[in-house]
Amino acid sequence: MKLTLGSVKKFPIELMLIGFIFLLLAITQQAVLMLAVVAIGVAVAGLLPFSRSIQLIIFLIPCLAPFSTNPYLPVSLATLIYLAVLGRYLLTEGGRSQYYLPGIIAALVLIGFELLHIIYNPVVFSSKTIRWLLLFLLVIMLIFDKRKYASFAQLRFAFLLGFVFSTLFGLLNQVFHPEVVYNTNVIQRFSGAAGDPNNFGLFCLLLVFFYLPSHPRERISISQLALCTALLGVGAITVSRSFFLVTSFTLLLYFVLYFRTAIGEMVYRSVVFFAVLVAVSFVLYWHGAATELAIFERFSSDNAADLTGARSTIFVEYLTLFTQLDLSFLLFGAGINGYLGYYNHFFLNNNVFTEVVGPHNTYIELLVSFGLLGSFVFLYFFYLCFKAEKIRTSTQQIYAISLLPLIVFSLYCLSLQNLGKYTSYLLLLMIILNTCRAKHE
């Protein structure tokens, strides 16, 4: 597969323009620039071909943090762009589209589950729920629409472009507006314009596997290797335990799956790989550099709560409270947009936590949001998403190597709460397209 960053038929000038406005924002910190981004985004949704709108919403995934910190609205300004894209889709595309019906039905059942929570958990009845439903509706229609308005290569390039500008935003922000750290023991972590180091690391690692071949023994070009190496280097500055653990496991798994038809070659390359790894480790140890690396310091604790960033403690408290609630909460949950307020009401009253705390784990989030019964419905919906794409593309065989992005996302779900974020469903769209992408794409 030959890597051509300009593989899109028409270069997305509007994305470059938005990206440069982001860089100006990083330098000047003038919030009014975000209004210009929103205006351009709405114009793209209304005036350009719909394929450009999809590229835009994918481009924005790594760049959403600046939208949330605005003085104009209590919600993210990016919501206005996504709603404009939804409106454009309903007006010009939705009426003449054909959908994978089982997937649409499963999605509507999920929406029904969420609205059902209003009956016994009034917290769900909010504008936040309405926004989530509308944006969830946009993504599920894109997933189950039998027409695809942009190729995977186009969306992948838009995602890469967004990641590049997100990285530059973070670097410029550190140069012109460095964060003052009074505690010298605090490890500074990089998150670009994503707002969270773990999310930034997730985007980085997904891009690596989006650009690597999705078929065994397919040729890897020098440009692909260079790009993936650069992405991994950027991801390393997040100083994220999740990034290093997931990267190590998935790259090794990719290596095994890529050479699965040539055992002798795989053994030879494995020996070379581990020899290089041992040599690098020895050099670091000899110079004492290993003990000075921030990531080694983050792995040095012998306490489970410290190693997981208190996630193990949070997991236990959420699971314990879940098992103590009424049958309705056990079966149907408290709602994606209701569990946080409901559970933290108990936590704060019982002095379990001193502030509002999310589960930081998508699997426990699924359980407390949809309950035991709803979780099975959600997993079936998840399965139908992939089945719909397999039918649409008439894919005969899905290679295990093409599932690496799904494995990356699943592992990151152990440290992120994704159900309430519409960007998670857009990432799911990208992962689905990658799974069934053609050879050499």
From TrEMBL:
It comes from Thalassotalea euphylliae. The lineage of its organism: Bacteria, Pseudomonadati, Pseudomonadota, Gammaproteobacteria, Alteromonadales. The chain crosses the membrane at residues 20-51, 71-91, 103-123, 129-145, 157-177, 197-213, 225-255, 267-286, 321-343, 363-386, 398-416. Its main location: membrane. It is found in: Membrane. GO terms for cellular component: membrane. Residues 230-379 form the O-antigen ligase-related domain. It holds the Pfam family Wzy_C. Keywords: Membrane, Transmembrane, Transmembrane helix. This is O-antigen ligase-related domain-containing protein. It comes from the Bacteria. Coiled coil: none annotated. It is a multi-pass membrane protein.
